[in-house]
């Protein structure tokens, strides 16, 4: 799976080269020069990376590939001499 993800990432790397070249040429055609032509492309790149980082926070890494939902957390009841307490057991830790 890691190899597949790494291989698909190559398409993003190739696309970024095409995007930067096309975007800067377009900005130069509008009359911008130097940093004024380049900086907005970097800002878009930064925004895309931040969105990607936020979306990664929603990935559950311990779920098996193809598994529809994560396994439910089952409560385990522990009986003691005093009042009973309920302890949550999790396989995720």
Explain what you see:
By secondary structure, the chain is mainly alpha-helical. It has one domain. The chain is built from 2 helices and 2 strands. The protein has a two-stranded antiparallel sheet. Strand 1 and strand 2 form a beta hairpin. It starts with a helix and ends in a 5-residue tail after the last strand. The relative contact order is 0.07.
Key features?
two-stranded antiparallel ribbon; 93 residues; elongated; 54% helix; single chain; mainly alpha
Strand and helix map with partners:
Elements: H1 2-29, H2 35-56, E1 75-78, E2 85-88
Short synopsis of the structure:
With 93 residues, the protein is mainly α. It has helices at residues 2-29, 35-56, and strands spanning 75-78, 85-88. The protein is built from two helices and two strands; from the N terminus they run H-H-E-E.
- Helicity, in percent? 40-55%
User: What distance lies between the first and last C-alpha atoms, to the nearest angstrom?
Assistant: 23 Å
Q: Which stretches of 5+ consecutive residues score pLDDT under 50?
A: none
| Residue share in β-strands | 5-15%
Helix count equals 2
């Amino acid at each position: 799976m890691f190899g597949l993800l790494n291989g698909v990432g190559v398409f993003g790397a190739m696309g970024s080269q095409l995007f930067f070249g096309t975007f800067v040429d377009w900005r130069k055609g509008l009359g911008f020069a130097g940093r004024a032509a380049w900086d907005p492309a970097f800002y878009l790149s930064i925004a895309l990376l931040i969105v990607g980082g936020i979306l990664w926070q929603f990935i559950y890494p311990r779920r098996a590939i193809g598994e529809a939902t994560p396994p439910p957390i089952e409560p385990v009841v522990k009986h003691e001499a005093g009042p009973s307490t309920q302890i949550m057991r999790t396989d995720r830790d």
